[in-house]
Amino acid sequence: MNIILLGPPGAGKGTQARRLVEERNMIQLSTGDMLREARTSGTEMGQIVADVMDRGDLVTDEIVIGLIDEKLSGDAAGGFIFDGFPRTLRQADALTRSLEKAGMSLDAVIEMQVDDEALVRRITGRFTCGSCGEVYHDETKRPAVEGVCDVCGGTEMKHRADDNADSLKQRLMEYYKKTSPLIGYYYAKGQLHTVDGLAEIEDVAASIAAVLDGTA
Ligand code: AP5
């Protein structure tokens, strides 16, 4: 199955995508992760991307569409999870065309609904393992042993440069202005499913599983 996880910053897209990779052998395509990798490249493009991300603006459609296109040619027996892509109507149209070209199609779009107050708490409390990228939270998901990643045993924990109040305000504005129109776009295509992203992580995972298994 090929699916989109759609939702504002902090909705839990990355957290749920990592579970689906583990449990269903799917491939996570996170444009945010790809761009964070690009910004460390030391190139001029990397510097431009870093400035845009730190402000909380969206990177140009051309750049992200190019990043996704490069990945769609590989083998994906379990299907792709598009995490943080598409984010504009233009990206959504490009994804439809790219999937068609690769002989694939989109099976479901899962919108994760979370209110703004919870998003702020989630983003300001988030930290990740510097080695494997596992996502944690100061209050809701701490490692079993303080400072040690549950997944890989890494001990370097990181905070993202754009997880601050100013960037988050701008990221939310970009979401409501440019990304939320995708909800109507996919609803009209009969592909939209909505889950309560405010529920516990396990319960959100169960709601997503029900959509994928056709039991929702
Ligand atoms: P990106 O990396 O995609 O970030 P985002 O969309 O802002 O989403 P986040 O990664 O912040 O949140 P998430 O939904 O994955 O939540 P998470 O699971 O971590 O994009 C970053 C930037 O890159 C953009 O601003 C833009 O500049 C650029 N970009 C990326 N894609 C682009 C595109 N397509 N076009 C243009 N520009 C693009 O969870 C958050 C926290 O909450 C964690 O601490 C977690 O432990 C906790 N949590 C998760 N679920 C729950 C739960 N159910 N209950 C309680 N806590 C929970």
Polypeptide structure, described:
This protein is an alpha/beta fold. The protein is 47% helix and 15% strand. It is built from nine helices and eight strands. The protein has helices at 13-24, 31-39, 44-55, 61-71, 89-101, 116-125, 165-179, 181-188, 201-212; strands at 3-6, 27-30, 80-83, 108-113, 126-129, 135-137, 157-158, 192-196. A five-stranded parallel β-sheet has the order 2-3-1-4-8, with helices on both faces. Strands 6-5-7 form a three-stranded antiparallel β-sheet. Strand 5 and strand 6 form a beta hairpin. Helix 4 packs parallel to helix 5. It is globular and about 45 Å long. It starts with a strand and ends with a helix. Bound molecules: BIS(adenosine)-5'-pentaphosphate. BIS(adenosine)-5'-pentaphosphate binds next to helix 1, helix 2, helix 3, helix 6 and strand 6.
Strands, count: 8
Query: How many helices?
Result: 9
Rg measurement, Å: 17 Å
Q: Helix coverage percent of residues?
A: 40-55%
Structural class: alpha/beta
| Strand arrangement in the largest pleated sheet | 2-3-1-4-8
For the sheet with most strands, the description reads: 5 strands, parallel
| Shape verdict | globular
Alpha-carbon distance between the two ends:
16 Å
Task: Tell me what portion of residues adopts beta-strand conformation.
Answer: 5-15%
Instruction: Give the averaged pLDDT, no decimals.
Output: 95
User: Element order, helices and strands?
Assistant: EHEHHHEHEHEEEHHEH
Name every ligand kind in the structure. BIS(adenosine)-5'-pentaphosphate
Low-confidence stretches: none
Oligomer: single chain
